Amino acid sequence: MVPALLLVVLVAGCARTSIPGVAVRSGPTTGSSLVAKIPESNTPVRVRCWSRGEAVQGDPVWYRIASPQEGWVTNYYIRSNGDHANAPSC
Predict the structure, then answer these.
(1) CA distances from 77 to 1, 20, 25, 37, 45 (A)
(2) Could you tell me which of 17, 28, 47, 86 has the fewest CB atoms within 10 Å of its CB?
(3) 62 within 8 A of 52, measured Cβ to Cβ
(4) What does pTM read for this prediction?
């Protein structure tokens, strides 16, 4: 059974940042080294896969993204509408 949180995330498409300055990290935790920051809100991100990691504001889902910078971003700062619904778990 898939938790309701994952259903919302995975059936939701094109993923975009919801705030300016989203941190891209080397792993799915806020303690992982900072790789880059995505400076603008509403920036498209290409999702490679998802994983559970450190919960951010209660949300444990993190995406490994391929662009605009390769690394990990927390779902908490991502808006999605379905393009990555078939993204595999990492």
Answers:
(1) 25, 9, 13, 12, 11
(2) 86
(3) yes
(4) 0.79
